[in-house]
Amino acid sequence: MKIDGKEMRTIWPEGDATSVGIIDQTLLPHRFATARLTTLDDAVRAIRTMQVRGAPLIGATAAYGVWLALRADASDDNLDRAYAALLAARPTAINLKWALDQMVVAVRNRPRAERSAVALRRANELADEDVAINLSIGRYGLKIIGEIAARKDGARVNVLTHCNAGWLATVDWGTATAPIYLAHDKGLPVHVFADETRPRNQGASLTAWELGHHGVPHTVIPDNTGGHLMQHGLVDLVIVGTDCVTAQGDVCNKIGTYLKALAAADNKVPFYVALPSPTIDFTVSDGIAEIPIEQRGPEEVATMTGKTKDGRIETVQVIPDGSAVANYGFDVTPARLVTGLITERGILQANREALAGTFPERAKLAP
Ligand code: MRU
Prior knowledge:
By secondary structure, this protein is of the alpha/beta class. It has helices at 40-48, 55-72, 76-87, 94-107, 112-152, 178-185, 202-214, 226-231, 257-266, 287-290, 299-302, 352-358, 360-363; strands at residues 2-3, 6-7, 11-13, 20-23, 34-37, 157-161, 190-195, 218-221, 237-240, 244-246, 251-254, 271-274, 280-281, 303-307, 313-317, 330-333, 340-343, 346-348. Bound molecules: 5-S-methyl-1-O-phosphono-5-thio-D-ribulose.
């Protein structure tokens, strides 16, 4: 996507061939800055501190992290160490493990002298694949928006989204946002309600920022507003991203997604999930019972960070001293609440047959 007229991705190998560039997402929306990762530890820290975040981008960063590790030491021991360190950096996004497994397959049987070059090549391929996958998701999702636009005869199509499943969460295009960007670029009158997404406000700070930079009309809403909007016919469809989809089509995504799915079902608003196939975990069936949910630090709930009137960035405490805090990062939306899964191979029903039938090569690898 473009930042101030310049084409950018969220992650890229630097020209010096020794480091990786990223957009530091912890500084957005008030400051745009890039950072450079030169070591395995840099990559692990970037994922853990959420300088990079969003399932597909976490996967891409992990892939480049393996390259950075092998540049320093191409031994089997160091490969194993890099795999373990990166895997532990964020627990929920299944793309992380998928990308690490891809890297291990690519380098494990290669001579040490070749491993670093092979790893860089494979990480670049995985990044390019992510871009192609998201564009394909966008093309399928565009049909849904186009049909609604035709029905509404020129009135704006209101899409509600949660968290940030935009291009910042991927290498480019985004998952949930890819259909939106394509619709906007095609001249369809699309408007986005962006859930603010407490506690870290990825919707307010990241989704709003990237939509704004692309010129997509949008409105930031407090997380609790979606149900009211749906009751009053102000949302035409919901599109969210996901961090893990199970073999039976349950969807794990940013905390609060489940409540939006309930409100959508109650109001007969279509609820779509946009996902690249590396987000499917065919080893898991019942998402509620089986997916371990990341629990994050209390400070994310206890504080808010923002810009003061005189332009300083400050963090303030918003709860009483001493109150306990719970900070579950994700929740699971059961498949029965999902209208459709928008994948790079088409729009599927959220069930085992559709997923395994569309991605047989992935399904057959699961035990
Ligand atoms: O905790 P984050 O910011 O890494 O959360 C991930 C997300 O951005 C969302 O869950 C998103 O909808 C899925 S990633 C395309």
